[in-house]
Amino acid sequence: MPSNLSGTASTTQSILQETLQQHITQSRKRTLDLFKEVNADIFRLQANPDFSPVGWHLGHIGFTEGLWLLEQEAGHAPLFPEYRRLFAADGLAKTERQNLPPFEEICDYLEQIRTKVEAYLPRAPLRSQAWLWYWLVQHESQHCETITWVLQLHHLHQQAAVSWTPPPINGPLPSPPKVPVQITSLSTLDMIHIEGGKFLRGNNQLDALDNEKQAHWAHVDSFWMDRYPVTQGAYRQFMEAGGYQKSHYWSNDGWQWLQNNPVDHPFHWDLNKGEHHPVCGVSWYEADAYARFAGKRLPTEIEWEKAASGHPGSGDALAHPSPQAPRYYPWGEESLTADHCNHGGLRWGTTTVDQFSKGKSAYGCYDLLGNVWEWTDTWFHAYDGFQPYPYPGYSMAYFDDQHRVLKGGSWATQSPVLRCAFRNWYEPRIRIHFAGFRCAYG
Fold first, then answer.
1. What domain range includes position 195?
2. CB count, 10 Å around CB of 75?
3. Are residues 203 and 94 in the same domain?
4. Residue 10's pLDDT is what?
5. How far is CA 247 from CA 109, 237, 266, 296, in A?
6. What pLDDT digit, counting tens, does each position of 264-307 carry?
7. 179-270-406-88 Cα dihedral, nearest 10 degrees
8. Residue 157 CA, distance from chain mean position
9. What is the pTM of this model?
10. Cβ contacts of residue 184 below 8 Å, gap of 6+?
11. Residue 102 and residue 90: Cα distance in Å, rounded?
């Protein structure tokens, strides 16, 4: 949602008010749609120790909106103060968040908060406060993705009795190539050359989260990038070649992780979808091991962002009299639609990696937004000039050299957080259902 605004103060206030009302209304509809078929047990049960119940996320969305807009900005007394400890991010351990009020009661809680928020919006000082409203829209959108992930975990638990058997190995596999090769088949061997130079990365628009600022010029050497995310068909070659049994494909930390977590396929593996769907449900360690097997590597965050938002032929942007601004989306500034990428739960699963030609980057890379998050070879860290908001723990707590950056969004990611500059982060051990990767070379 590009958000550069100009004009008189009254015009800007009017435009912001209308835009933000639309965003908060759409976000809430998307949230509640996720609960249409959630029963009372699923609503309150933990599906995994790392994630809270979906009902807690719903209450937390309302609590956070009320805390920042009504209490911190409008000066209201807390609504339902008895919920504070339950729904605050630092109130209870995740294992203690299952004793929840009924769905209808939490919906009433959200509705009462939203009614007061909408009454406050016309008088809110939006020229200075808009960033907070955009942050809250994105906060809700991010929790929507987490809710979808937890619902997927519940579904997978229900399917746990179905075992998976690796396909037979039909003869020896050829050695993986050690240089980028241009071919026409749908394969991660199909790579695109990205020229080096300086380009503007990050985001200074109203929707920028603290970890995206400040936008800054950065240099990247030339490299090659996979045209597509790694597919299930390509990843199967790694599995059939004994990739999970051969230590030389793994980093030391990755091999240790594998010994502690003996697996031989991704967390989510479903060839019924077809070999041209992206592989997903892999940890950073698995992605790194595959890249080594293929004679490649994972891209750095700056390489990924250059391939997504840069312009071919720009060379050293600082040498140009009118350097081109980075693209907000890989395809440019045209508003995001269902024709650009697989997002927002519209298809409730992955799609083939070559489906969205309208969403290609200027360099010709597919699926840089949507379908699966993509691991990078970069630790999550602050940019120069970083200023935490709305509170220090939102991003700063994760600048610990323990979290790898993921880029691009997944099929469950909502539109407010889909852009080239957006940064996600997870520990490399996490096998999140929505995470895949593509490779780089050079």
1. 191-441
2. 8
3. no
4. 63
5. 52, 16, 17, 17
6. 999 888 878 889 999 999 999 999 999 999 999 999 999 999 99
7. -170
8. 23
9. 0.88
10. 190
11. 22
DSSP structure string for 369-425 = SSSSEEEEEEE--PPTT----S-GGGTGGG-SS--EEEES--TT--GGG-STT--EE
Encoding tokens for residue 124?
């809110």
Tell the burial category of 156 from Cβ atoms under 10 Å away from its Cβ (0-12, 13-18, 19+).
middle
- Alpha-carbon distance of 369 to 305, in angstroms, equals 11
Q: Residue 15 carries which side chain, given as an amino acid letter? A: I
What is the full DSSP assignment across 145-168? HHHHHHHHHHHHHHTTTS---PPP
If you ran DSSP here, which 8-state letter would residue 241 be given?
Answer: T
Q: Could you tell me if 325 and 394 are in contact, meaning their C-beta atoms sit under 8 angstroms apart?
A: no
Which tokens belong to 398? Answer: 């994760």
Question: CATH no. for residue 334?
Answer: 3.90.1580.10
pLDDT at position 271:
75
Specify whether 321 is located in the same domain as 381. Answer: yes
Q: What is the DSSP string of 200-231?
A: EES--STT--GGGPSPEEEEE--EEEESSPPB
